[in-house]
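Supplementary notes for students who missed Thursday's class. We covered one full example, reproduced here. Read the sequence, then the structure, then the short commentary at the end.
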Amino acid sequence: MIRSRRHLKVALSLMLVCCSIVSAQLAEAKTKLTLAQRVTAALRADDRLNGAECYQAAPGVIVLHGTVFDQKSRALAEITASNVSGVTQVINGLLTKTGEWMAEQQRINDTLALNGFPDLTVRVIGNTAYLSGTVTGDDEQQRALRVIASISKLQVVNFSRVLPGSVF
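Structure (token representation):
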């Protein structure tokens, strides 16, 4: 009987050790989840950061991804994430909508220049391209609008002016 009590104590001790190991592993997994959740909650607290998402790449390391409006929002997201307890490093992979707009704007302006419209420029804001500058006739103005429509789905607001060309 004494021998079986001893076996019972050993068995209980082993069970306690196993339970504590499993408990520690579960706590570590829970910590990873809750850190990303806490960062997400901090990002959601500010409407300017609604496009920002995150995940935990390693213990304490948060990776930001998604799209926010501008560079100020991108920097704010990084600061917000780094201020969450438990975050030791933030990798900021956020894109900006204004960056996308600038790329589209550059592409349109390059195409206009290549098609013989050096005096026309486009400014892209959101889903709208604002065309400004001068052309020498109505037909040139219409051709410029067709060039833009051929490479972009943006709505074009035409502020360009027609200046008559030289008679000589």
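Commentary. Residues 51 and 145 are 33 Å apart (CA to CA). The first helix runs from residue 2 to 44. If anything here is unclear, bring it to office hours.
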